[in-house]
Amino acid sequence: MSRKSSRPRCPVCGLHQELCLCDELPVRELASDFVVVQHNRERNKPTSTGRVTAAVLRAPVLNYGAQDEVFDASALERPDTDYYVLYPIEGAATVDDAGTRPAPGRRRCFVILDGTWHQCSRMARRAPRVEAMPHLALPPGPPSRWGVRTPPNPAAVCTFEAATRLVEVLYGAEAAAPMVSFFTELSARMLGMRGRQPGHDDENKKAPSG
User: Fold this and answer.
1) Out of 113, 143, 189, 203, which residue is the most buried by the measure of CB atoms under 10 Å away?
2) Alpha carbon 168 to chain centroid distance?
């Protein structure tokens, strides 16, 4: 069956419309700002978690890589803001609240990349403004539970999981807990659409960004 004849999906959470979870989005009200830079090839993929990440964090989504569009970096150019991109290049510092705390009168903004591991690598190195930002790595954590995409390496997690771990580092487990619960249900419903149930095999799969 072609995609044109597929059952309609929610454009945010990617689930079939009757399974949509957007009424239960755990929108966070946090002192930090966030921006999602999404690779153009992820724009219409239902298994991309970049859109739901942006909805939860109240973040704009900047599209990168479209041949007929100029990358709009205006959201990354505020003079009163310190920007950081979450991508673990060699030598990147591990993110922590104290190390990124802004000076009085300034804000901080975390850029979260949405794409495959390879796409995120290219965006981190080539996207205007992003390439010059300090790069941060997440601390070690549990393997991904996003069992709907093929993992590129054992450390990879999907975009929503990366954002959840970032919120936990910055604001504690209590702030991140609603995101964890939401993602557990999102994963279960996405797997159920494919006739699968979360289980031991899925828990040990590690998904790429997306």
Assistant:
1) 113
2) 14
At 7-29, the pLDDT tens digits run: 899 999 999 999 999 999 999 99
180 burial level (CB within 10 Å; 0-12, 13-18, 19+): middle
Give the separation between CA 85 and CA 58, rounded to whole angstroms.
17
Give the confidence band of 1 by pLDDT, cuts at 50, 70, 90: very low
How many angstroms separate the CA atoms of 205 and 196, rounded? 14
3-state SS assignment for residue 147: coil
Six token digits for residue 17: 């419309």
Least Cα distance to 157 among 122, 88, 107, 206 occurs for 206
From CA 9, how far away is CA 19, in angstroms rounded? 9
pLDDT digits (tens, 9 = 90+) for 117-160: 899 999 999 999 999 999 999 998 888 888 777 666 767 899 99
Phi, psi for 113 (deg, rounded to 5): -90, 140
- The residues near 210 (Cβ < 8 Å, ≥ 6 apart) are 42, 45, 47, 48, 49, 50, 114, 115, 116, 146, 149, 158, 159
What values do phi and psi take at 175, rounded to 5? -70, -35
Helix (H, G, I), strand (E, B) or coil at 115: coil
